[in-house]
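Tutorial sheet, problem 5. The two components below are modelled jointly, 627 residues in total.
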Amino acid sequence: MSLSQATVEKIQDYARRYPSAQSAILPALWAVQHEVGYVTSDGMREVAQHLGLPASLVEATSSFYSMYLTRPEGRHDAVMCVNVACALRGAEELFAYCEQRLGIRDGQTTSDGAITLRSTIECLGACGGAPMMQIDHRFEEDLTPERVNAIFERLRTEPAPSPEPPRPAAVPPTPTPAAKAAPKRPAGGSRPREKKADT
Amino acid sequence: MAEKKILTKDFGAPGLAHLAGYEQTGGYQAYQKALKELQPDALVEMVKKSGLRGRGGAGFGTGQKWSFLPKGVYPRYLVINADESEPGCFKDRYLLEASPHQVVEGLLIAAFAIGCNLAFIYIRGEYLPQHEALEWALAEARQAGYIGKNVLGSGFDVDVILHRGAGAYICGEETALLTSLEGYRGEPRLKPPFPAIKGLYGKPTVVNNVETVATLPHIVSNGPDWFATIGTETGKGTRLWCMSGHVNRPGNYEMEMGAPIRELIYDLGGGVWKNRKLKAFQPGGASMMVLLPQHLDVGLDFDAIQKAGSLAGAGAMVVMDETTCMVDMCRRYVEFFHHESCGKCTPCREGTFWMTNVLTRIEEGEGKAGDADLLLEMGNNIDGRSFCPLGDASTWFPRSCIKYFRDEFEQHVTEHACPFRKERVMVA
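Model answer (structure tokens):
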């Protein structure tokens, strides 16, 4: 395996930006995952080579962090938090529903390769919008079985997300205050909302 | 009582996430004032005088932390801790998403105050939209000349690197964060030496929380005396409280320090959902001790919450109604700490494993007589003997639950089942 020129340049750029090339390991591994989809020993060896570090060091660092994938996964990642704040609002029951709906268990990928489903005990920072999921690292909050159905339906046909989030151009557009403006959904669950009908 | 909005007062203003919108609310005025009218030392004094205490968990005086940097030792680094991972906390996410420039402005003021030319923001890997918001904000600030060489003709050079983590709760602990930023496994280091003396790359380093630096522009603009009039004797200003769980209106609420917990849960949060009774609540985050309805009039501030037997931590407020099984909550939290233990020290690595096992067997109806005491004994052996606060803190919630809800633990054992789990479906 060999990384693309663009990825290699990115890694070399990281190495120059930090006071120490070793600090570029995490961003370099992200770059590999963005290109390949996951990080193998080959990927780690290449990172080591471009940063001028021993491969063992890159592997030691990489294996500590849970977000570097070690094998190919579905086009979309669906991760549901089941820690306390989410569990209090039914996350575990809803996760069981997700498994049933997709016909897969925790950690598995649907047979069409569209969705990898996972539960996590690691809080994802949307306790106010529980139960919640991150779909390709974007927040979906206040979930119900109906909303989950609609999300899965969409993911079945949607292409994989762009591996790299859109980067600001050299000259960022200056939006008119009303136009592009604030985030689409100003922190849904992290913002006080109107009272909902209680059931 | 309403919220007291300082950090969030302009949230919802058009285009606030972008430079033009932020500047329309007076953004970057404080930074310019600091560069033009104030000397770094004066800024440090100003922040000391304001009484601002860190919002990341420990509540240490921000100005005091800055003044620990040894004189004349350069380079020195500023690292903003945006690795918000404490279960129950989602305030930094909100601040970064709604007004990333407020955080960047605060960062730049802090960098100028401590004489730092290269600052870092360490953001958790899961916060992708917030990462993007910051990336845009930094690019805009760079273009506007707020970041770069000789900022606005002041002679101050500053650059900022946005660093993305990759899924490790422990990296929120400041020394683990620095180790991670250096490209190692995110394991904590021994203190002392504290980061102020020997931090990133062995250089003097200040680690500040997102909410802490987001407060700085307001202190610079309005003065430390204004800030010191808000809050209590020992807790100044406002804090964002991240409310979740069994409450009608969960979400972030900015409140004056010292406002009673009752106002947060009942007036702002609309009380307990489904007309149920309040059983318990937990301030601070996963690590912190549980409190009871009898503590509702305790003030939301560092010292008052500590006096009541818990800690304000990173500003969570998890509300639990009468149907909540405290054993199950303990099991989840301890399982989380076990999952996130870095493995460096034995009390934490092994202790959280065994506590998870015992809590699981109690919850599954296979507990033994004396298990509650066994948990207490384990907790006492982990707390104070772990390398970093992760291990210590893994024991605080379960121990406080045994203190207040021992009957519940014993009921699980004698009935060989969880009394709260009726038709709940369990997923392994």
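Marking note: Chain B touches chain A through 92 residues (CB under 8 Å). Full credit if you identified this.
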